[in-house]
Amino acid sequence: MDERIKSQLKIYDSLTREKKVFEPLNESFVGMYVCGPTVYNHVHLGNCRTFTSFDVIFRYLKFLGYTVRYVRNITDVGHLVNDADEGEDKIAKEAKANDLEPMEVVQKYTSGFHQIMRELNNLSPSIEPTATGHIIEQIEMAKALLEKGLAYEVNGSVYFDVEKYHEQKHYGRLSGRKIEELATGQREIEGTKDKKSPLDFALWKKAIKGHIMRWPSPWGEGFPGWHIECSAMGKKYLGEVFDIHGGGMDLKFPHHECEIAQASGVTGQDPVQYWMHTNMLTVNGQRMGKSVGNAILPQELFKGDHELLDKAYSPMVLRFAMLQTHYRSTMDLSNDALRAAEKGYKRLINALNALEKLTTLKSDTQEIDNKLDEEINKLVDTIFHGLNDDFNTARAIASLFNLVKKINGFYTGQLNLQDISNQTFNRTYKAFKAVFFDILGLKVEAPADAEKLIENFVNEYKKAKSIRDFEAVDRMREYFKENGLAFRDMKEKIDWVLEE
Q: For residue 364, what pLDDT is reported?
């Protein structure tokens, strides 16, 4: 990897609200923690966008030559019915309602989550720890906060003392909230009278009678609060301070704000160098939600089984649609957007196929067109400039399409392939494939033997044209169109492309 490109990477930090040159704590190693799914429900498209965004970040950091330890947790306990740290754990609630073991619920939704991630071609994280697998670490962190006077125990529950912490460090830095306004806006909710302040949050909760997910602790049987799991697991696998912590913007407050307080309360240090948050996903301009009837599950989109969809869209079309918007921008999902993404995705595959065929046509070049050669190299550079601008995939894809125009020009003969150097062609070929497959994480969705079958059709089409059997020509064109393909008639050859 070109060290110049590597040194130009900038990341927007949600805590400082600045875009900064990326400087990992260790020169070659990057520690990245992303808040994973809470497995009490099916993964939704907003989750898919968040995890796909961080998949690209993971891929690009590896492409730049870093060794990346990507930790993405599974929340399988402690996610309560409301943000007041009260009520019934959602996993336990479903288990009771369906006469299941809680881990049966966890397994069902975890398996479903992994299936969707595979369909979207997201890489597996380096480590995928679960909250239930790290009860000891969470208890130890709660004990440490008690010893430092930043937590207190009441009736078998342990709470973080937000106001005590705020005397030492600013609580609300990440979300931009003021503790005075938070305190004024809080109301007392039934069951929270043990807290010194409504702002305080549970590190450990006493298990009441009938609560089926419980573990022994120094304070009696209970279960961990929601926020402490990520702090405990991040510290265990990435250290007291690590490079990147991310998730959806809805996690800024209270989850990530509480994480900062807990972790820095234990170590005295800010736990993360760069906080990163993906923006929300809307549907036809409205925020996605069950109450408005626009909550589309990934499998519904892949099958076209939703009243808001006019057809089915493949996993790669969804992935490409998500990457056409920068991760910090709101993404609106609509049939128009999905159709445009499908068309754009096919354009890239056609260019990929054209590049492969151009490799057989490129010969040693004696004289080159310096202006054209330089133009091609600049187009390749701009793709990486986009990725280095806070992983701006939208900008990178726009540059990729500019390069596609040149590739098509070479393929159709409008530009002379021999006018550029072999070095420039090889760089273009390698960069295009690396961006498409390795960084954007796209793949070609087609049966393995489809190309051979298509080539046979092309040969039959050529024969029909040569004998002027226009009825057969029209019939084959129509058949190709019905199957998302098109013939490309050129002066000296006939080929096929995906219909755009």
A: 82
**Tokens read off for 360:** 């057989």
Name the residue type at position 199: L
Report how far residue 14's alpha carbon sits from residue 23's, in angstroms, rounded to the nearest whole number. Answer: 16
pLDDT of residue 276: 98
What is the domain extent for residue 471? 450-498
Residue 440 backbone phi and psi in degrees, to 5: -75, -20
Is residue 10 included in any domain, yes or no? no
3-state secondary structure of 307: coil
Q: Is 474 exposed, middle or buried (0-12, 13-18, 19+ CB in 10 A)?
A: exposed
- The model's pTM is 0.90
Asked if 312 and 302 count as a contact pair (C-beta separation under 8 A), the reply is yes
Residues 173 and 215 in one domain: yes
pLDDT confidence of residue 485: 85
State the DSSP string of 111-141.
HHHHHHHHHTTPPPPSB--BSGGGHHHHHHH
pLDDT on residue 359: 92
Give phi and psi for 30, each to the nearest 5. -120, 125
Question: Which pLDDT score, from 0 to 100, does residue 190 have?
Answer: 43
286 exposed, middle or buried (CB, 10 Å; 0-12, 13-18, 19+)? exposed
105 and 146, same domain (yes or no) = yes
Q: What residue ranges of the chain have pLDDT lower than 50?
A: 81-83, 189-191
Residue 445 lies in a domain: no
In a domain, 131, yes or no: yes
Cα–Cα–Cα angle for 288, 290, 295, rounded to 5 degrees: 50
- Report yes or no on 15 lying in a domain: no
Give residue 481's pLDDT: 86
Which tokens in the block code for residue 465? 């044209």
> What pLDDT is recorded for position 96?
85
Measured from the Cβ of residue 167, the count of other Cβ atoms closer than 10 Å reads 9
Token code pair at residue 187 = 């109301």
- 303: tokens are 């099958």
Q: Count other Cβ atoms within 10 Å, centred on residue 133.
A: 15
Within 10 Å of residue 173's Cβ, how many Cβ atoms? 15
Q: 49 and 164 share a domain?
A: yes
> Does 350 lie in the same domain as 264?
no
C-alpha–C-alpha distance, residues 139 and 152, integer Å: 13
Domain count, the chain: 3
